[in-house]
Write a structure and sequence with these properties.
Elements: H1 4-39, E1 41-48, E2 59-62, E3 66-69, E4 75-79, E5 84-91, E6 98-105, E7 108-109, E8 113-116, E9 125-130, E10 138-144, E11 149-150, E12 156-157, E13 163-167, E14 176-180, E15 188-195, H2 197-200, E16 213-218, E17 221-227, E18 236-243, E19 246-249
Parallel strand pairs: 1-8
Antiparallel strand pairs: 1-4, 2-3, 2-5, 5-6, 6-7, 9-14, 9-16, 10-11, 10-15, 12-13, 13-14, 15-18, 16-17, 18-19
């Protein structure tokens, strides 16, 4: 049994690492802002959906602008563009080629962190969640009706093939990723996002302001991208259901 001293020590260590990780992410954002101003450029960053690590040496083609490679920090830098939607294609060996939408508004990129997925088995189904600096802790929940509930509370499922929470992020930005080996066509599934920070800190930023984004991968391609509505209320966003094998937005 854990002693009170051990529990407190573990809590302090976890807080230290979470705070350090968030500071690193904030440093990256500030670095991008200053560099963009000084050099009149834009920056996007690519991260591995399973590990959260930067993805270097990726090939990114931005429509009507040019082709670029990501550096060791996963950064892709390109000339500043007017407001609008830029379309780009991400490619790297060992990863799923992905169409990236870069939304420029008020002379800045609204979301400049992109999560890319390593190649999966053909039947696997993967959901990836990212968000902004605040709230610090959003949680992904994937529920199979009358069967299992994958979340930070129950990270592995063995009675329905293999399903797991690959990565649990508690310090902002994500990724938080869930992968299951195969979906049953005759069963219903629900994916939702919960603002866990609101449970431990009632003054936490609302879920609606989180800029949460959900990527859905299956058959080794990006199937859907969902952006949280800014009009949503409460601490839970029900993103989609899977009904008879079809992803249905909610």
């Amino acid at each position: 049994m854990r002693t009170l001293k051990a529990v407190l020590a573990l809590s302090l260590i976890t807080t230290f690492f979470n705070t350090s990780a968030q500071h690193l992410k904030m440093d990256q954002i500030m670095e991008d802002v200053f560099q963009e101003q000084d050099q009149n450029i834009f920056t996007i960053r690519l991260f591995d959906a399973l590990t959260g690590d930067p993805v270097p040496d990726a090939f990114v083609i931005i429509e009507n602008i040019g082709s670029y490679s990501s550096d060791s920090a996963g950064r892709v830098m390109f000339p500043r563009q007017p407001d609008g939607l830029l379309k780009a294609i991400f490619k790297k060996t060992g990863y799923i080629s992905t169409l990236i939408n870069i939304d420029v508004a008020a002379e800045t990129i609204l979301r400049n962190r992109y999560l890319v997925s390593p190649i999966m088995d053909i039947d696997q189904f993967r959901v990836v969640l990212s968000w902004d600096q605040q709230p610090e802790d959003l949680d992904a929940h994937f529920v199979k009706a009358n069967s299992y509930h994958i979340s930070f509370r129950n990270t592995r499922v063995l009675n329905d093939g293999t399903g797991q929470l690959d990565r649990d992020d508690m310090d902002g930005f994500g990724p938080e990723t869930i992968t299951v080996s195969q979906l049953s066509s005759d069963k219903e599934y629900t994916f939702s996002v919960n603002n866990y920070s609101a449970k431990i800190n009632p003054s936490s930023n609302s879920l609606a302001s989180s800029k949460a984004t959900v990527w859905v991968y299956t058959n080794n391609k990006l199937l859907n991208t969902f952006y949280i509505p800014t009009t949503i209320s409460g601490d839970t966003w029900t993103v989609f259901k899977v009904i008879q094998g079809v992803v249905v937005p909610q």
